[in-house]
């Protein structure tokens, strides 16, 4: 059977194993129906190979739904539900699909406590956007299967952030991390995806996918830009704060930073990453 031109980032298929929905589409020794699971770790790197030395393609965070295909040697081969990305998570980062999340973290970061007491050593931190299944309350805290979270750091999962650029501004100074998708570390497309996700706007993971999928094209003459417009280069993306200022997670600053768009375009061009390839608007 000829192999179709499918994006390997989004295709749960290997020579030995593939999703049952791909039977007749790809060649594989075995086809399986994946099982629903949910991320129970604060965050979990998704890698392209089942090894801690393998590069990080993206991150899943607490509450993310996944489809599980295989567990072997401590790694789970999965497909992330929210953006379709396929790869390997640590097997112990997954738990049952239920209960479904009821709240999400709205603070940049918060702590998960063993009891409803801020003086107790926390079990870990949770990032902006992490989703929680709240089972009860205890004073100022929400109770979840994993512990207690300060209630005012959380909002119902249906609550939307109306201004993605405003969310991005809150993240200024966050260190750059290739594959990062949390408030501890972000890459360029991870920043855009997080901000749009919190606004209730579905967004692919990588910059090239975002460039193809999001919004309507504008002229690349850098004129007439508005807050929320997305500016793309080969392998890079940023968001406009207004007609002239760009916010982006980038390796030059090694952080989420704000700078004049024309300064950024000149530097990126000089560093051989090329000119702006497109500008997209969907607000």
From TrEMBL:
Domain named NlpC/P60: residues: 157-283
One Pfam family from the record: SH3_16
Xref: InterPro entries: NLP_P60_dom, Papain-like_cys_pep_sf, Peptidase_C40, SH3_16
Keywords: Hydrolase, Protease, Thiol protease
Statement: the UniProt record of this protein carries the keyword Protease: yes
The family this protein is said to belong to: Belongs to the peptidase C40 family.
The protein's name: NlpC/P60 domain-containing protein
Source organism (scientific name): Methylobacterium trifolii
């Amino acid at each position: 059977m000829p192999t179709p031109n499918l994006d390997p980032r989004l295709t749960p298929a290997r020579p030995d194993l593939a999703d049952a929905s791909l039977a007749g589409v790809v060649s594989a020794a075995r086809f399986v129906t994946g099982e629903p699971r949910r991320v129970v770790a604060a965050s979990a790197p998704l890698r392209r190979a089942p090894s801690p030395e393998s590069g990080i393609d993206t991150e899943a965070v607490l509450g993310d739904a996944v489809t599980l295909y295989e567990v072997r040697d401590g790694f789970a081969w999965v497909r992330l539900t929210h953006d379709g990305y396929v790869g390997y998570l640590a097997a112990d980062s997954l738990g049952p699909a239920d209960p479904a999340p009821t709240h999400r973290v709205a603070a940049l970061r918060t702590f998960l406590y063993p009891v409803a007491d801020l003086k107790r050593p926390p079990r870990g931190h949770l990032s902006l956007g992490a989703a929680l299944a709240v089972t009860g309350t205890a004073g100022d805290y929400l109770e979840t299967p994993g512990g207690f979270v300060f209630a005012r750091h959380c909002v119902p999962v249906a609550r939307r952030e109306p201004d993605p650029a405003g969310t991005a501004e809150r993240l200024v100074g966050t260190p750059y991390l290739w594959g990062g998708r949390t408030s501890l570390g972000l890459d360029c497309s991870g920043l855009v995806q997080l901000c749009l996700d919190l606004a209730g706007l579905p967004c692919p993971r990588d910059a090239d996918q975002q460039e193809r999928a999001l919004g309507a094209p504008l002229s690349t003459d850098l004129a007439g830009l508005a807050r929320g417009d997305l500016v793309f280069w080969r392998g890079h993306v940023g968001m406009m704060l207004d007609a002239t200022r760009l916010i982006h997670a980038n390796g030059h600053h090694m952080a989420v930073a704000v700078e004049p768009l024309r300064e950024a375009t000149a530097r990126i061009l000089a560093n051989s990453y090329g000119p702006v390839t497109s500008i997209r608007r969907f607000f």
